[in-house]
Amino acid sequence: MKKKIEKAEILIEALPYIKRFYGKYVVIKYGGAAMVDEKLKDSFATDCTLLRFMGIKPVIVHGGGPKINELMKKIGKKIKFVEGLRMTSEEDMEYVEMVLCRIGSDIVSLLNKHSAMAIGLSGVDSSMIKATAIKGMGFVGDVTEIDTEPIKLLDEAGFIPVITPIGVDKEGKRYNINADTVASNVAVALSSEKLILLTDTKGIYDGETLLSTLKADEIEPLIEKGCIAGGMIPKAKAVATAVSAGVSKAHIIDGRILHSILLEILTDEGIGTQIEK
């Protein structure tokens, strides 16, 4: 009986959050260890399915760095990053898009397996993600505009959108765009309640101390101090941009923890680092 009461208490704790976020968009960037570990993959899919059936609207933006690195190494291509962004030549772009589209398809299959009803969208579809080239980075792009109509149409039809972070410019050129950046821009365009980035770390640190809460304007000084470096730079900039542009809160959480999404959204304590305006 004690365990049954504890389960009821957990549901009661979640109730205020379910009420607060009902009918609201939550943009989730899915990547890292959570994407390759089978238990974590099932955990992610279960969390998204539960949110959808609760009336919360998850929108998934996926990465694919490890899989792209794996393919590049196999074919003997050099891998170079600048401030966490992958240098991408025109030839590289073909491989990047191939890997990302396959990953998107796999995520859709995973969610469908858990009865979530998902459909994949590339940023190229209906020119949903409009982009411009980042100077000196080859076919790496930055977001100029997000057309939310395809996302909203899928949501209204009961589907979870799964977005592949490929953008397109006015001439039809395709660009590899950092998934954290895309997730941030999607969250802003949808006036999302939350932006959640699943990562391979517990959150943002100041030296050895995990920071549970940060203000958006505290991000840049941490980058300058070197506390935020490498692949964490685009993540930190993405969450700071999102909350500065109107997203209520953004979170960088450890995707290696089972049911990390539910723990962050539906519990009092939460996990990881939350960023506020």
Describe this structure in words.
With about 280 residues, the chain is α/β, with parallel strands linked by helices. It has one domain (about 25-275): 3-Layer(aba) Sandwich (Carbamate kinase). Helix content is about 40%, strand content about 25%. It has nine helices and 16 strands. The chain has an eight-stranded mixed sheet, with helices on both faces. The chain has a two-stranded antiparallel sheet with strand order 3-4. The radius of gyration is 18 Å and the shape is globular. The relative contact order is 0.16.
Oligomer: single chain
Derived structural class:
alpha/beta
> How many E-type strands?
16
Biggest β-sheet description = 8 strands, mixed
The gyration radius over C-alpha positions equals 18 Å
Q: What CATH architecture would you give? A: 3-Layer(aba) Sandwich
Name the poorly predicted regions.
Answer: none
**Widest sheet: strand ordering:** 5-8-2-1-11-15-16-14
Q: What's the rounded overall pLDDT mean?
A: 91
